[in-house]
Design brief:
By secondary structure, this protein is α+β, with helices and mostly antiparallel strands. The protein has three helices and three strands, in the order αββααβ. Helix content is about 45%, strand content about 20%. A three-stranded antiparallel beta sheet has the order 1-2-3.
Amino acid sequence: MRDSPGVEDLVYEWRKQYDDPILERRPETFFVAVPPTVWEEFGAYLDLEEDLLAALVATHQEQTVRTSGVTLDGLTDGHVPLVVTR
């Protein structure tokens, strides 16, 4: 993500496309809620098998839930958490 096209640019694009999907912003980390198609794109880009992609999505969701101060209140139906660092 840092190289293609960059975390800041991706988050900016997601904010425009998905009605501000940021659940929490911290100095080094964004917790965002994106549609599954975003994960599908990353899975294709990284050539991940379906089960590995599902595990990765579940890991990001678990990390979001376990992070103190982050709530899923802003999670749009059908969207899934994604944790990105700058």
